[in-house]
Amino acid sequence: MSELVRHLVPPQAGDVRLDRFLAGRHAELSRSRLQALIDEGLVRVNGAAAKASQRLRGGETIEVEIPAERPAEPEAQELPLRILHEDDDVIVLDKEPGIVVHPAAGRPDGTLVNALLFHVREMERFDGAERPGIVHRLDRDTSGCLVVAKSEASLESLQAAFRSRTVEKRYLALVHGVPSADAFTLDTPYGRHPRVRTKYTGRNPIGPERRAVTHVRILERFAGASLLEVDLETGRTHQIRVHLSEAGHPILADREYGGERKEAKLPASSVARRAAAAIGRQALHAHRLAFPHPRSGDRLAFEAPIPADFQAALDVLRA
């Protein structure tokens, strides 16, 4: 649960920066924590997201949404892992759909991090409490390739590779409709949705402006659906799901970004609706991952096989 705190700005606070005003009223929060809340759109002035540098005039109403405390340090759990590769520096996994990558509020255990802490004991010695070794993540219902660092040096090297965009991230997606172009690029600003805080958008996002770039190619066309190959140039949260949905082609069975709403309007006999029922989760699979090895610099590449539920949806479409 989040705590919502409201402040009425007094007249004498006019011409004071927003971040300084809040720092004087939230001694329990560090400056960096306040900045993060502002960046995430959790601070609103008269109902609108604001920047830290915004000057107050007096009389405004400020709302500060403070999320619940982070979960305690996770415990090691003996859970199954699908390992594509492992050496002294990294472990590459084929994540099953339905598995959360790291603990969060309401999900303290049963995650990949819990399994990794059991499998790789030295992970307990570095990189904070709740996300040891995690360089990037996949949504709970997205399957496929995920690389995890086994040491602090490996983590820093992989993070640098992701920042410099020398990592190849290729996905397979089943979507509603057939795009008009065989290949295209979606390049938009990106951030929090202005009305639904848990969602993201490439259309008038709130908070600091970031750029999201997604390259798309059609692999197969079906009746009312398509199989797409998607390459990420940037790696924003929910990026593929948001970009494809806002381009008019939501991913099959996507609950948050329009897939399920699209299916509800289709007749029961629709091939796309039957394929969505066959997979039962967003039809997105991280098929290929390539990156420079953190120690040797050699380029490594891995592919996660298409999971059974994704293949079942494909079989319905192809039939």
TrEMBL record:
**Where in the sequence is the active site?**
D139
- Is Amino-acid biosynthesis a UniProt keyword of this protein? no
Q: Which region is the signal sequence?
A: none
Report the residue ranges that make up the RNA-binding S4 domain in this protein.
16-80
In Pfam terms, one family for this protein is PseudoU_synth_2
Broadest EC class?
Answer: isomerase
Chemical reaction(s) catalysed: a uridine in RNA = a pseudouridine in RNA
The entry lists its GO molecular-function terms as: RNA binding; rRNA pseudouridine synthase activity
Q: What is its EC number?
A: 5.4.99.-
Q: Which UniProt keywords apply?
A: Isomerase, RNA-binding
Domain of life according to the entry? Bacteria
**Similarity annotation:** Belongs to the pseudouridine synthase RluA family.
Function, as annotated: Responsible for synthesis of pseudouridine from uracil.
What is the official name of this protein in its record? Pseudouridine synthase
- What organism does this protein naturally occur in? Vulgatibacter incomptus
